[in-house]
Specification:
Spore Coat Polysaccharide Biosynthesis Protein SpsA, Chain A; two-stranded antiparallel ribbon; alpha/beta; 12 helices; binds 2-acetamido-2-deoxy-beta-D-glucopyranose; 11 strands; 412 residues; 9-stranded mixed sheet
Amino acid sequence: MSLRAILASLHGRRYLLMVGLMVLALVGIVSMYSFDLKTYTAPSGTREDTMMQKVRSKFHAYLYKTHYKIHKEDYRAHCSQENFSEAFVESTKQRYMNLTNGDTEPVFLAANLYNNEKILPNMATQFLKLADTLGHSRIFISIYENGSTDRTKEILRRFNETLNALGIAHRIVAEDTPKPEHIHRIEYLAKLRNYAMEPLYSDGAKFGRVAFLNDVYFCQADLLELLFQSQTHGAHLTCGEDFDIWKGEIGFYDTWVARNIQGEQLDREVQILSSNDTTMSAEMRGRPFQVQCCWNGMAVIDAKVFHGDEGLRFRRSAKDECSASECSLFCNDLWRKGFSRVIMVPRVKLSYDIPSRNMLRKPLYFPADLPYNNPEIEKISFRPGPEKVHCMPLNGIDAIDPDGPDTYVTLL
Ligand SMILES: *[C@@H]1O[C@H](CO)[C@@H](O)[C@H](O)[C@H]1NC(C)=O
Ligand SMILES: *[C@@H]1O[C@H](CO)[C@@H](O)[C@H](O)[C@H]1NC(C)=O
Ligand SMILES: *[C@@H]1O[C@H](CO)[C@@H](O)[C@H](O)[C@H]1NC(C)=O
Ligand SMILES: *[C@@H]1O[C@H](CO)[C@@H](O)[C@H](O)[C@H]1NC(C)=O
Ligand SMILES: CC(=O)N[C@H]1CO[C@H](CO)[C@@H](O)[C@@H]1O
């Protein structure tokens, strides 16, 4: 039995029993479910190595238990690649070579959390895997949390301790700032995003890319793919696609923010996602395409758009401006500054709950074991954007959904 086969066969309580044994037996245990990419390990046998392995296996056992308590499932199975072909795994090594060769500019991971115990064990695990893949010194984790009443704070405290011990740069803030009683939702969300971005705003020069995550289920591979597409296309904003279930059907979620290259809304139904034929044909082939705007649960941003006195920030609408989402306004600001390489990557499929996550694993939505497209065929010819963009305003204080009449905003 190979080492991988042994690891793959460990499930449920047997995993817990085996943790101690595995620590003794293994160096690099934590990367067991990631692509076989070059990972960071302290020189084996050193005290640093032994200490790090201990800290990590303790944290992973805790995450395993926590996720199991909430969902009654082995959370590692979702990102498992035990059934992927050798050819596929080999193609990923080639594809992500430039991200893993140690030359990648540091990546800034950002998230705002509030009562997110359901997704957090997976998020912490995937962040640690990415740190291994890129190198511990090539990642910064910034999380801002406020007022959670579930296990979010406890998980964050332990994550914080683990990152301290592993020497992975981070700023994890857990606060109890009551949300002002009456506030414009977008003004508040923009403020939270800027809090999480703070360490980059004050020392932006260090970072090449930002990955901003919603409370989604994802695998390290999703982050790698967005970083890869961002790098090969020199993209300013690169997004996956997020999904939820509505009336029993799985559909594209972020229709409030996403706009196709003509500035029009995308459809919930994937088969008619965009009214643009070029876009549709790329979507169906799993190739990236240019859009005017996207966020979709996970966005990779070229850090240079935040640099300097004129650097972009998240914001709510100005007076007399259509009161769009802080993410829509961010896109419009990008275009106005000439940062027009905004792309969506259909292979990165994200969800906010377990039923959607499981539906996305069906072959129609999850062709993960197909060989990747040749990056050359995937090259996008970027074009100028639309003059006008469809906007659905959210005006009311305390409103949660758009409440004003649809309108068009000009980008010029
Ligand atoms: C791998 O394939 C086997 C056999 O089809 C299946 O039982 C198992 O659940 C699969 N594992 C994962 C993680 O999908
Ligand atoms: C890696 O980067 C080099 C230099 O920019 C480029 O020529 C090459 O195509 C890249 N490889 C991949 C797999 O992206
Ligand atoms: C994380 O650790 C730092 C350094 O020990 C500490 O200042 C901070 O309060 C911790 N944050 C959380 C959320 O535990
Ligand atoms: C659809 O998008 C492509 C490229 O993204 C563009 O060349 C074409 O003009 C668009 N179609 C329409 C009807 O705007
Ligand atoms: C108590 C509190 O302020 N909670 C807010 C924290 O931020 C989230 C958004 O990330 C709000 O939804 C909460 O209401």
